[in-house]
Amino acid sequence: MIKVKHCGGPSTGTLIAGFAPEHYEGLMASAFGPIPAYVQDEGDSSEWWESESAALLLEFLIETLDEHAPEECYFGTHPANGSDFGWWRIKP
Fold first, then answer.
1. Which 3 state secondary structure label does DSSP give 75?
2. Which residues face 32 on adjacent strands?
């Protein structure tokens, strides 16, 4: 499981919002249940973002994006900057 610890990089909520555009909400809801409504009211300060449910959702999104990475690439953090997420070429 991915352990999310924030040290000035993007928050779990920011990552989930960036990795899961609105048209993927149905897929996520069927896999994990919806993000609780109160979380949207509380915003980034919600304790839910530090929960196991949020970590599992983020892990699912990262793994799904990695599975769809172009050939010879992976999805994850940039080797030189752990706060930059994207598809990166696997160096031989």
1. strand
2. none
Domain ranges of the chain: 12-89
CB 29 within 8 A of CB 20: no
Secondary structure (H, E, C), 15-52: HHHHHCCHHHHHHHHHHHCCCCHHHHHHHHHCHHHHCH
- The residues facing 81 across adjacent strands are 78
Q: Which of 83, 65, 79 is nearest to 6 (CA)?
A: 83
Model confidence over 9-66: pLDDT tens digits?
A: 566 777 777 776 654 555 555 555 667 778 878 878 888 888 888 888 888 888 888 8
- 3-class SS of residue 92: coil
> Which residue, chain included where needed, has tokens 């172009």?
70
Which two structure tokens, joined as six digits, stand for 69? 């990475």
3-class secondary-structure state, position 2: coil
